[in-house]
Amino acid sequence: MKLIFILIYLSIVFLLNSCIADKLVIHQAEFTTPTASLPVNVVRPGDSNRVDLAIGLSYNKDKSINLNTDNYVQQAEMNFINSNVNITLDYLVDNKYSIFTGLESALYESYLLSGILGLGYIKKNGDYGLRFDVGISLSGNHSKALVSYDYTGFNGTKYRVSENIDKKAVSYNYFAGVVCNFINYKNFNPFIRLGYINKNLFYVGVSDDSFNIESISARNHGFMLGAGTVIELNDVVYSVVGINCNYTFAKPYLDNTLIILPFIRFHFSY
């Protein structure tokens, strides 16, 4: 009896693996994702052990870009959501190390929720401080697409299948950044921030139960240059105001694109 079950199982696996979906083509698609962003973590004079809670807003007009076409993508549009709200929690130890986490949501697309988790290292040198951050994040994407593909059944029958896809998914990203800011001015301490984030833009796969699933996807390389100032309101509350220039590309489907994001963050430190 056990041998019979094993043979049935192997037969099912064989049949499923014999079903093949290939030659996937995106005929028309609309992809939506939040623009890649990173929290601006700064160094403050007199820091030691502290917990820092920040609420931030970045705001600009959303940007839509037509993707480059090839044999696999006939027509597609990428929508970057540029207006986002975020909240982060940063825990510092001995003014040298930190661990931070947070959430970010597209302002008009609440289902595009992102999360972040990272580690920081703080270094002071005279009149300025350096903050190095690395970590991972998760971000929401929304894909609407009309696709077609060749489907070959286990009996060898082949035919072309068309399918409408409307899917929300979460993808992983990784990032690194460094912030340099003055720390000895009384109320205003300018900063500059350099950052990099590798982010998934879209993923379209055949929604088939077989083990042979074809997909088309693209990842975004985002290089960030930001600048602004830290405004010290009192010992507990301070604000970070600035502008972020996000230079992004995802060859071969997306040309180099510059996205500018003004932002403001309010921090509560205790």
Task: Give a summary of the structure in a few sentences.
By secondary structure, the chain is mainly beta. The chain is built from one helix and 13 strands, in the order αβββββββββββββ.
What do you see in this structure?
With 270 residues, this protein is mostly beta strands. It is built from 1 helix and 13 strands, in the order αβββββββββββββ. Strands 2-5-6-7-8-9-10-11-12-13 form a 10-stranded antiparallel barrel. β7 and β8 form a beta hairpin. The radius of gyration is 24 Å and the shape is elongated. Mean pLDDT is 85; it is low at 6-17.
Q: What spatial order of strands do you see in the largest sheet? A: 2-5-6-7-8-9-10-11-12-13
One letter per element, helices H and strands E, the order comes to HEEEEEEEEEEEEE
**What's the number of extended β-strand segments?**
13
Q: What is the CA-CA span between the terminal residues?
A: 67 Å
* Main pleated-sheet profile: 10 strands, antiparallel, barrel
Oligomer class: single chain
**What proportion strand?**
over 45%
Average pLDDT across residues? 85
Stretches with pLDDT under 50, minimum 5 residues? 6-17
Estimate percent helicity.
under 10%
Shape: elongated
Radius of gyration: 24 Å
